[in-house]
Design goal:
This protein is α+β, with helices and mostly antiparallel strands and about 475 residues long. The protein has one domain. The chain is about 15% helix and about 25% strand. It has nine helices and 15 strands. Strands 1, 2, 3, 4, 7, 8, 9, 10, 11, 12, 13, 14 and 15 form a 13-stranded antiparallel β-sheet that branches. Strands 5-6 form a two-stranded antiparallel sheet. Helix 1 runs parallel beside helix 6, helix 1 packs across helix 7 and helix 1 crosses helix 8. It is globular and about 80 Å long.
Length: about 475
Amino acid sequence: MPSLVSQYTLGASLVASAFMGLVSLPAAASSHREAPYITRQPKVDATDFYMFRSTEANRAGYTTLIANYGPLQDPFGGPNYFSMDPDALYEIHIDNNGDAKEDITYQFRFKNENRDTQLMVGGTKVSIPLVINGGAIGGPAAAGLNVRETFTITKVSGDRRTGTRQAISNASGGGAAFDKPVDNIGNKSIPDYAGYANQHIYNITLPGCNAPGRVFVGQRKDPFVVNLGQTFDLINIKDPTGDEKGGKDSLANKNVTSIAMEVPTACLTSGGETVIGGWTTASLRQGRLLNPTPKSGNASKEGGAWTQVSRLGMPLVNEVVIGLKDKDQFNHSKPSGDGQFLGYVTNPTLPALIEILFKVPAPTNFPRNDLVAAFLTGVTGVNKPANVVASEMLRLNTSTAVSATQNRLGVIGGDNAGFPNGRRLGDDVVDIALRVVMGRLCTLGIECKPGDAPAGSANFTDGAYVDSSMFDSTFPYVKAPLPGSP
């Protein structure tokens, strides 16, 4: 097993390449369709992961975790819309001692109930083809729903598969099953979608916690903002150091499905360590037997051990760092095994691509220890755990005060409560990543010198603007989804 020093060295190379990868392809909507296999399984494709101290009034003692799944959802995506996979296991992991292993895991399982609403047609009962059976929907488990989607939550302490398991229950009405709102079909089906969805915010009893948390799972407007098309087309932006509001938001008309939790911070931290690491994964069963005659709706039979197929902590890593042949392997991996990807990061070339395309010099400090601090270990004095093992995950110092006015550029904008110290919805991670990969931390004297990054002060941007004003001020913070009609 490699020593901490050797793990740090491996991590240094990994993060260097990660941030360099962000330059040329920051527009994968953080993790939309980032690996070959996951393109075939959109229901378990994690798109973004957020972790920040709650900013809602009177919630200063809480941390919000948001894992988004199901990329590029068109609001008009009927007739089946975008339910979660009942054969999958969705998880949010917390490492609270810096050892690159999960200490707390929240597991989500989903269930779809087909109520098989039937209409009498010519004297014969016939099943309807829609997820609603007529009439407006106004609350959880409404009679008008033809398909009711519910979920359960389990807390696992220790290893995600062998640790202690405890069910999470509804703090208000008891029970372990929670309703997920149907997607925003349209204004005729659901006249007040925001009000309807808010009825699915539940207070939850968390094992080992003295105070309840909150949970919401449902469709939301995709919060990620990025100039997707031009960025992938050889960074086809007129001037990446130019207008921060002049680019197209390619996700402006897309929805996503959010798994959002608000947990008392004291229930996430351990001992005197205030920094936590977080990431989300989705897993499927190893075996799948297709049913050639699925008359009852059982199109397949799943079995065997859980196999992880999606992983997301820091944005933009798998799609722009890992070689094509190993992207699925990254999605199967854990933070503790990140050293296996060393070959892709020892000789990064993407900053050189920026140099070629835009005639701006790439950083010259190798290994890129500034990127190690940003992406693998945390920045000293900002979000670095005391006994950190270098590994890729989102790290949040829960003792950092919430910013009264958020700066969309986070730490490099002078706001230490923002990315890469956790990630808030209004943090412009594309612009931050572009600037840091080209050496912004060097200009701040973090793990390198200003002379190492001749273009470190340039304000690189994709032109797709985002800030905190574009989101709700209360949990779950992500805006209600766009309606399918009209």
